[in-house]
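pasting for the record
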Amino acid sequence: MSGVRWAIAASLATAATHAAMRGVELHPFLVAFWRNALCLALVLPAAVWWRSWTNLPGALPRHSLRGLVNAAAMVLLIAGLSRLPFTEATALTFATPVFVLIGGMVFLKERPGPAAALSAALGFAGVLIIAPPGPGWLSSGGALVLASAVFFAASMLIGRSQTRYADNLSILFYLYLMLTLFTAPLAATEWQWPDGTAFAGLAAVALCGVVAHFCAIIALRRAEAARIAPFDYLRLVWAAIIGLALFGEPPSARALTGGALITAAALLALHRGPLRRAS
């Protein structure tokens, strides 16, 4: 159950991170780089104190792979967020739990029962109600956000395997180190120094991002990836609140209907039993 609580906290912090990213008026490459560099700066003192660069055998390749996959996901998401209403963009990211469910079965040998499949289906149905594909959807940024969901799912699955080889702080340290290294060449192509307002926004992005990643790592350590993935759907609830409070975007009837399904999906995931692993 503790893994579920951390997953819910991660969903709230992630929604706050996305809202902060939307408010930064810089090129997506620059937002991604500065977000990661500032996150690295936040965790660096603790990483130095605890010597978090020390790895058990087999951990470093996973750190590198997750950093590369997460960098691609982040750039795609930032680009998509700038082209869609906040609630719709958030809704499209909820394809991630479905991809996690499938990936967990294929790569981690997790075998979710019927309730898990129903939970994922309900959540995805809620997403389709809120942001149904239609004319102009691909060109509006929907495809970018959906592609980011695929990469975030891959990152989550890699993160689950990382917990077998490294501690929480080490995972965070190497994640931000690799993300900074991988996004630096992209940022160099659009380089400009952020002004005071943009830097304050980036600092908020970094702080929320560190909290979100830390909560997600603990959740992944304490529960199967497919078990906690549906709780990511709760980000839509937070997105609706944030969208109204910060961007003046009241939730539509579709958002309320889809949100009810998404909430039901998360509650169903909460009450179902543990996953089975293939023998």
